[in-house]
Amino acid sequence: MKDRFFLDTNIFVYAHDGQDREKQSVSRRLIFDAIKNESGVISAQVLSEFWVTVTRKIPDPLPFDFAMRAIELYGSLDIKEIDYQLVLSAVSLQKKYLLSYWDSLIISAAKGSMCRILYSEDLNSGQDIEGVVVVNPFQSGEKSLLNELPIYTN
Hints:
Elements: E1 5-7, H1 9-16, H2 21-36, E2 40-43, H3 44-57, H4 64-74, E3 78-80, H5 84-97, H6 101-112, E4 117-119, E5 128-129, E6 132-135
Parallel strand pairs: 1-2, 1-4, 2-3, 4-6
Antiparallel strand pairs: 5-6
Helix pairs in contact: 1-2, 1-3, 3-4, 5-6
């Protein structure tokens, strides 16, 4: 098993949104690797944000049944629940680093799940926050990190 890593909501949204084929391909490869190697971690927040985004916010929303099947598939990942301690941690990170509460909750979930890497395009790539390093898998200089991942085709 590889080291555990945390996947932010945008990874899952891009996997299902055909607006940007390159981001879709990178996202699918990350998710496939996360499931195959049992190395991916997400939070209940990620699943919730994914649901709202793919059923209501993307240009071509997914049908509810299809989105539900995706949620069920992603349920095979390690899912960090949102509890009181996680909320307190997020509030502390928000104050200390001047982040949004929702980004702080993602970072707290990654940290609490012992993930060293957080794949996201929403934060500053390369930033180390409390031992969690943000990696934007869509930046050209960082795609080399994905070279060893298997190709996922549907």
